[in-house]
Amino acid sequence: MDCPKCRLIVPPDAERCDCGYDFATRTVQGSYLNHADPESVGGAHTVPDEIVAELVRAQGRRDVTVGGLIFAAGVLVTAVTYGAASQGGGQYVIAHGAILFGALQLLRGFVRMRTGRPSQFWDVKL
Ligand SMILES: [Zn+2]
């Protein structure tokens, strides 16, 4: 079928044209395009903002949980090895890395939970 608004040929099972025309309601809605961040949802560009926001918030909660655990583990290792400072140089490097990484994950998680928006700046891949 083709879109009555812009005449674009669209698949028969499409619910909405790229121009924003909604076939179910026969009204022009906001286009799905340009709203969702394609990279954050695996290349899909027909995902509504609310779904993206929910996915990002869920990811944020995971980031906070994982980041918190890594951060806590880093602090714990540092605390445990503190007494053995003269011998434990290598362990310090690992613990500090975990603390930094965990803190970054936590921060990114909080940002994502607050905003519901994918943030490239904080997007450190695990
Ligand atoms: Zn159209």
Features:
mainly alpha; 3% strand; two-stranded antiparallel ribbon; binds zinc ion; 2 strands; 126 residues
Polypeptide structure, described:
There is one protein chain. The chain is mainly α and 126 residues long. The chain has a domain at 48-115. The chain is 48% helix and 3% strand. It has helices spanning 49-81, 89-115, and strands spanning 21-22, 27-28. α1 (49-81) runs antiparallel to α2. It is rod-shaped, with a radius of gyration of 23 Å. 15% of the residues are buried. The model is unreliable at 35-41 (pLDDT under 50). The site of zinc ion has 7 residues, from loops.
Gross morphology is rod-shaped
The biggest beta sheet, please?
Answer: 2 strands, antiparallel
- The poorly predicted ranges are 35-41
Question: How many distinct beta strands?
Answer: 2
Number of helices: 2
Radius of gyration from CA coordinates? 23 Å
Element order, helices and strands? EEHH
Percent strand equals under 5%
Rounded mean pLDDT score: 77
Secondary-structure class: mainly alpha
List of distinct ligands in this structure? zinc ion
Q: What is the strand arrangement across the widest sheet? A: 1-2
**Gap between N and C termini:** 43 Å
Query: Helix fraction?
Result: 40-55%
